[in-house]
Amino acid sequence: MPIAKISPSVLSSDFAQLGAECERMIKDGADWLHMDVMDGHFVPNITIGAPIIESLRKHTDTFLDCHLMVENPEKWVTDFAKAGASMYTFHIEATDNPVALINEIHQAGMKAGVAVKPRTPIESVFDLGDKMDMCLVMTVEPGFGGQKFMADCMPKVKVLREKFPNLDIEVDGGLALENIDQAADAGANVIVAGTSIFKAENPKTIISTFREKVNTAQLNK
Q1: Is-contact 30 60, C-beta < 8 A?
Q2: Active site residue 130
């Protein structure tokens, strides 16, 4: 049974205090740290790259969940592996040979995740079920934080969970207390949340609640 993993999105942190912000999340119970990497081409925004991952890695041994919203994701595997990334998640829409890319990621010593945009059919990743370590189902259009959760993406999560009962399934975009039940009941076990955790009065309570909701839903399946 997949267990809950809560991965606060660092995109919502105070970048001027990045090290302290990440430490705060870990102390509050985060399992992973979600790093949004955007190139300004695949998505219309630019955020962080491998040098930031490398700098952060010097101060934490936490699992760094790197989500690459980039064109040509093959180009950056070596850089992120050297920087200390734990998970390298690429978009199925950004590559013509996902199997080769997954193999390259594994050979570099990282786990391989495959992300799917809201309008991309979930069937596009079915052939990768026994190869990828995680599937990320986007619940907003990738590119910017603070967007509204798209509940109509939950059937994709449900289908994935039925087909791959032991796979880590991540959801990312607009997750908060008012919709965590929908994600958990659909079968997601890796929860990415930015604003609802980083801006919360008590992030520890939010993280704990997310974990409890997910684990309870998994036990009931």
Answers
A1: no
A2: no
